Amino acid sequence: MQSLRLARLPLVLACLAATAVSARDLTVISFGGANRDAQVKAFYEPFKKTGVNVVAGDYNGEQAKIKAMVDTNSVNWDVVEVESPELARGCDEGLYEQIDMKQIANPAFFVKGAVTPCGVGIFVWSTVLAYNADKLKAAPSGWKDFWDVKKYPGKRGLRKGAKYTLEFALMADGVPPKDIYKVLATPAGQDRAFKKLDQLKPNIQWWEAGAQPPQYLAAGDVVMSSAYNGRVATAQKEGKNLKIVWDGGIYDFDAWAIVKGSPNKEQAMKFIAFASKAENQKVYAENIAYGPTNTKANLLIGKDVAANLPTSPANIKNQVGIDVNFWADYGEQLEQRFNAWAAK
After folding, report:
1. With 70 as the cut, is the pLDDT of residue 290 above it?
2. pLDDT band at 232 (very low <50, low <70, confident <90, very high)
3. Which of the two residues, 199 and 19, has the higher pLDDT score?
């Protein structure tokens, strides 16, 4: 019997070693593209030096996938990048772990709104109006011009979803940015937004991935598009003559969250703390034009970089912050209505 135990010992040790290696792997899911490239440089690769292997993956923000994991107790994602409205709704629904800021950093160091019960902001970003300056004779000034197909003939790119698209429709219809969510919270305001979208529908080319608007603009498939400012900045670095209209943009946070039931909760907290350090957020902002959530990072960022960030005073003054509570309350019904409208 003793010899049998000894014979089994190498197998047991091998299994324990495999389990230990598996436990050290941390799965981090983001929106991919240039965003993930910047995250790899600023967060993933440096964090690996602490002895934890980061396994990176992409998704398009589908909360249904996360809900299915949690509901079936088959969680194989640890840390996920989540947009603010989905984070608020998912937190309420029990899809994410509560964040212990004592393990992360002093909340006072962060931009207001970046720290929530289930998430810590990674960066500040904006959805803006972008255009190819080589294709247009005159620069558009805002969403009213975006809807003006007589003055600016050609296709327009819009994100295939209610969020942002409905806000832009109301701005195009003359609603001041500060009143957008008050109007959109009413049935009449929702009808008004969809009626405005009806006017533009024949000229819309939908996009679903953040990399698509710069591609559409560079190829001349569309003359203007809503776009994530960081993706536009990346295209500019590649030599594309794309321009941003900051006025009427919508700024938001993407946040790190930990999927409820993650087997690597402790390592996930350590990763979020690491990614929240000012020196690491500085590297991120230098690789993609999204503003840091840790305000101490601003002291480390050069003026040339800061000028292209959505958080610079000149760029943010005529933007509107996304209303997370609005989208938590109305998001599901408006997305359903939008999908039905888009399918017609």
Report:
1. yes
2. very high
3. 199
**Of residues 264, 313, 310, the one with CA closest to residue 20:** 264
Domains and CATH numbers, the chain: 2-123+254-311 (3.40.190.10), 125-252+318-343 (3.40.190.10)
What average pLDDT does the structure give for the chain?
Answer: 91
pLDDT digits 0-9 by tens, 314-340: 888 899 988 988 988 899 899 999 999
The pLDDT of residue 24 is 58
pLDDT score recorded for residue 64: 93
Rg (CA), the chain: 22
Handedness of CA 156, 159, 164, 167 (dihedral sign): positive
The residue among 340, 294, 34, 338 whose CA lies nearest residue 159 is 338
pLDDT value of residue 313? 76
